[in-house]
Automatic annotation (TrEMBL):
Keywords: Oxidoreductase. Pfam families: GFO_IDH_MocA, GFO_IDH_MocA_C3. This is Gfo/Idh/MocA family oxidoreductase. Belongs to the Gfo/Idh/MocA family.
Length: 335
């Protein structure tokens, strides 16, 4: 499929997530190499390229897209720029890995999917956690019937960044707020685990005047078919945690670090059945590297693990949750 070649990546922007996690992940992957990085801040991009050993630094995004040696781009720009640069990358013939949340709304997401489809390039949303083998094992256990019929899921993702004044997450017009930034994780996880799309959402949020009136905390219920509910909370002004619990009629599965997995540490989750508990353990893996490898295999003709339309479905939940939080109403999804 690839004849031993590497997928040559270009990075559009010097965001912290790119520098800390995604670029090292691509560098540690079996399939990829980081060939170039671009930023509108020339001094910053040169410094970043030098510190990470990236051979080419561009002082404009356009220049990177014009580089014919680049196969794929990773876009970690502020949320309101995802649509524009995904479409421009597609038009330049580049495959696109776009950071979550995918867009500002489902309509933008649909435009991005259509543009990449028209250009014949692969498009994926950067939910790295789904590429960790833990989640395949969680699904295996559920499908085996060991914990019985699923009755509910509870997901959390919280941290305290309230003191980071000027953070792009504190600007509404840029797609700021906790629902966009981390609420999207439990939505994605519940959809993956259940293999179904939700029917309604109800959300209570704390909008902070100190932080551009974005939602700094949100709690809610996302209703799925078969009377299954995802209860969740997400926050950028609360004590930190990221957990997932799947409750069945005969047992439950609990992931204490559901979305974050240190690449140099083993990880585990607990299974509770019949009054007994066991640990399912996993050797250290870099889930960002696994994400890059899965992406490359799709580029080289393999079946994508997650179709681009998956991102559209997740944005529909975000749309409903944001509307519910703003208007204090239950919002129906789907037909």
């Amino acid at each position: 499929m690839n004849n031993g070649k590497k997928l040559r990546w270009g990075i559009i922007g010097c965001a912290g997530i790119a520098i800390r996690s995604v670029i090292p992940g691509i560098m540690q992957s079996q399939t990829g190499e980081v060939a170039a990085i671009a930023s509108r801040d020339e001094e910053k991009v040169k410094s970043t390229a030098g510190s990470l050993g990236i051979p080419v630094a561009y002082s404009s995004y356009e220049a990177l897209l014009e580089d014919e040696s680049i196969d794929a781009v990773y876009i970690p720009l502020p949320n309101h720029l995802h649509k524009e640069w995904t479409i421009r990358a597609a038009e330049a013939g580049k495959h696109v890995l776009c950071e979550k949340p995918f867009a500002l709304n489902a309509a933008e997401a649909e435009e991005m999917v259509a543009a990449c489809g028209k250009a014949g390039v692969h498009l994926a949303e950067a939910f790295m956690y789904r590429h960790h083998p833990r989640y395949d094992r969680v699904k295996e256990i559920i499908e085996s019937g060991e914990i019985g019929t699923i009755r509910g899921i509870h997901g959390t993702f919280t941290f305290n960044a309230s003191g980071a004044k000027g953070n792009v997450r504190f600007h509404r017009h840029m797609g700021g707020g906790a629902l966009y930034d981390i609420g999207c994780y439990p939505f994605s996880a519940a959809r993956y685990i259940l293999g179904k799309e939700p029917v309604a959402a109800t959300v209570q949020a704390f909008f902070s005047p100190e932080h551009g009136d974005v939602d700094m905390m949100a709690s809610g219920l996302v209703e799925f078919p078969d009377s299954i509910g995802l209860t969740f909370d997400c926050a950028m002004w609360a004590s930190g945690r990221n957990t997932l619990e799947i409750l069945g009629t005969e047992g439950r599965i609990y992931l204490p670090s559901a979305f974050v997995a240190a690449p140099d540490q083993a990880s585990a989750f607990s299974v509770f059945v019949g009054g007994e508990q066991r640990e399912e353990t996993f050797q250290p893996v870099n889930q960002y590297a696994l994400q890059a490898d899965d992406f490359a295999q799709a580029v080289w003709g393999g079946q994508p693990r997650f179709a681009p339309e998956d991102a559209v479905h997740n944005m529909k939940i975000l749309d409903a949750c944001l509307q519910s939080a703003d208007q204090r109403i239950r919002v129906q999804l789907g037909e």
